[in-house]
Each structure stands twice: as C-alpha cells, then as structure tokens.
C-alpha cells in the first residue's frame, strides 16, 4: 500500500508523543522516587550521626537526664517527621521517641527486644527500606548510626521515616514534569505544522505538477517562491516544462514547415506531369515545363539536404575535421561561384583581407558551407548595382570574418528569428523561389560546433552584416 509522506510524518510525531509519556510515567517516576529516598536517607543519616555523638552517648553515660534527652528527641522527631530509636547490641529498644514509656524502664527485663535485629542487615548501606522486622505496617526508610563509648559500640541510633512521607511530593513533581512534557508536545506539534507548511505542502505541489508532466501536460507550473532547495526544484521543473513545451511546439512547427515546403514543389511537379500526360501541355511546350520540374526537384533536393544536415548536427553534435587552412583564399574561391549572379545584378565584391594568407584552425568543408550561405544571402538580398564587402581581421587570437551587403536588410523584430529553421522575413519572401529558410540555421550549428560566435547587424532597407569568429591557427600565433 502506498503511504503518503504526511502519514509517515504524523506517525513519527505520534510515536514521539506516546514515547515521551511512557518514559515520563516509568523512568522519570522511578528516578524521582530513587532520588528522594537517597536524598532523605543522607539527610537522616547526618541527623542520626549527630544524635549518636551529641545526645545518645551523653544519655548513656547519664550526663544527660532522660527528661532532657526526651525533650531533645521530641523536638527532633517533630522537625524530621520521623521516629528516633536507640537499640543496644542485643536488640533491646532503649529509647523510642514515639513511645515515651520505653526510656523509663526500670530494669533491663522491661525493655522490648527485637530478637531478629542484626546490624549486618545494614552492612551494604547506611539505610534500609523495610517494615523493620515487622515493627511498622508500611514500608519505612531506616538509617542507623552507632553510639560509641570507650572505643566500643554500645548501642545504635535509628531514625525511621515512612516512605509515604518521603515520596509524598513525587506526585507534585510528576505533575510539573507532565506539564513540561505537555508543553514540549505542543511545541513539537507547532513545529510539525510548520514543517507541513514549509516542506510537505510544497512537496505535494511539486508531486502533483510532476504527475501532470508525466501525462504529457506541460502547462501547469509549480508556484513556489522560496529560495531553498524546494524553490530550486520548482524553478528547474518550470524551466524544464517550458523547454519541453517549446520543444513540442518546435517539433510541430518543423513538421508543418517541412510538409508545406515539400508539398508545393511536389504539387507543381505532379500538375505539370499530368498535364503533359493528358496532352494539356503540347509536346512543343514541354521543354519549358521540364525546366520547371527540374527546378522544383533541385529545390526538393536542397531541402532534403538541409534537413538531413540539421538533423545530423542536432543529434550528436557535428564531428569536426579541424585543419589549418587559409581563410582569405577560401573567400576568394567562394566568390567565384557567384560570378554569374553578380554580373546579372551588377554586384561587386569589396575584399578587405588581413595578410597575404590568414590561417585558421577549423573544419574546412563546413566553413566553406558557412561562407557559401552568407554570400548567397548577401547576393540574393542586395540591391542591384551595390557592393558586398567581405573583411577579415584578427582580434585576441580570433579571426573575425564579416560579410556586409547593401540590400533590403532585416526588420528589427525579425533579427533574432533569422536563425530559426524555415524562417524567412516578409521582405525577402518571393526574392528567391528556391530558398528553404534553413541556411542560417545550418550556419549557426556549424559555428557553435566550433565553439565560436556569429552575430548579425542589420538596418531595414540599408543592409546587413554577418560577423563570425574562427580560431587563429597556432602557426599564425607563433
Ligand atoms: P536558403 O538559405 O535555404 O537558400 P534562405 O536564404 O531564405 O534559404 P536563410 O539563409 O536561413 O534562408 O535566411 C533566412 C532568412 O533571413 C532569409 O529568408 C531572409 O529573410 C533573411 N536574411 C538572411 N540573410 C539576409 C540578408 N543578407 N539580407 C536580408 N535578409 C536576410
Ligand atoms: Mg540562405
């Protein structure tokens, strides 16, 4: 059976209370009783020793009269709430403060004798708890002190105090300790409530939300605004849910974009092929439509390649084949590819390259792809008869490569989105029918795989500049 944490806490708390009261009723009570007996025995023993040395010996050698001795003992009996006895070695009770007649006995034969009396019974301790050879009806604490004369033990002074008088205060003390334990229990109940409020309820909130995440609903967030570990877990969960939400959203967007971009060329290919098949397009016009079909298949191939590239980059990162190569030379050979487009649009390249050769340490074919994409964008979106400036420079052991055009530019609210897959600005739509909107996503993945940075600065209607960094080759650093 699944037991909630709350019931576990509650069980521990109740066990604590039951245990506290059990200990209180058993251990504490007997400890208090023992302490009181011990304490009382010590006090009575001191008194008996004093009586033995000060009064009993004077009484025995008759320097203290019986009346005076009785008076003193009566006062002490009251003061101590205990009976004071004197017994000789043979067990004869020579004096009993509770019985005034005993001390007046005329002859030894008249004394009451305790035949069982044996001082060896006190060997282990200076006091005993018993009914003292049947003399008392209840348990009594008895202390004993010898009375010596001429270095001989002549008799003993005994003080008897009923246990009920000694432990009579225990109930009061127990009440005080019960009250204290009660206060401790109330305090721990308050602590328990604070714990429930600060720990249990937040944990429940987190559990509830995590259950809904488990079912695939990432909308609920954990509302916990504390700076402790639970607050950290809540923030992490909210962040995770947000990421999963956007991931799901991205995936949906990705699939809808891919489907859309595949569907339009396929529809037009299908339409033209059917039209040629049923004779709607006469054979003499077919050449033009074959070219359109070829164009559309090229677009599909480019799209497929782009998706495959991104998929490969996204999964386990890109395996880079880092070598030293001359970036200036790569720029010069790449722009040759664009000669045709440039002459059509009247574009010119303005190369500002640092050094004769500038070695960088990077994956040559991937950087070629980056340069191709950036220059392709620059030529596509440049105004006619403008120039494209490509510049290389060195800063802090990094090579900065900038591709700057004078063209349509990117609207301010689209600048951060150009890196998104399939994103095209409203300004650029229709400028290039083959465009997939994947070029810059691939560029960003490649630069990030090199642990480098790429940035874009653009002004709508004026132009755009892309700047990226590459590590300078160690040969250049030396
Ligand atoms: P493809 O790269 O597959 O040919 P594309 O060029 O449209 O397609 P990206 O290179 O990813 O895709 O660029 C995304 C969008 O960013 C472009 O469609 C365009 O709207 C905008 N863009 C990119 N470069 C420039 C530029 N130099 N000037 C103006 N807009 C640009
Ligand atoms: Mg592009």
Instruction: State the assembly state of the protein chains.
Output: single chain
Give, in order, the helices and strands. HHEEEEEHHHHEHHEEHEEHEEH
Residue runs with pLDDT of under 50 for 5 or more positions: none
Q: Given the C-alpha coordinates, what overall shape results? A: rod-shaped
- Number of helical stretches of at least 4 residues: 11
Structure classification: alpha+beta
- Percent of residues in helices: 40-55%
Sheet with the most strands, sense and barrel status: 5 strands, antiparallel
N- to C-terminal distance: 71 Å
The value of Rg in angstroms is 53 Å
Bound heterogens, unique:
adenosine-5'-triphosphate, magnesium ion
Q: How would you write the strand order of the largest sheet?
A: 2-1-5-4-3
Number of distinct beta strands:
12
Mean pLDDT: 88
Report the β-strand fraction as a percent range.
15-25%
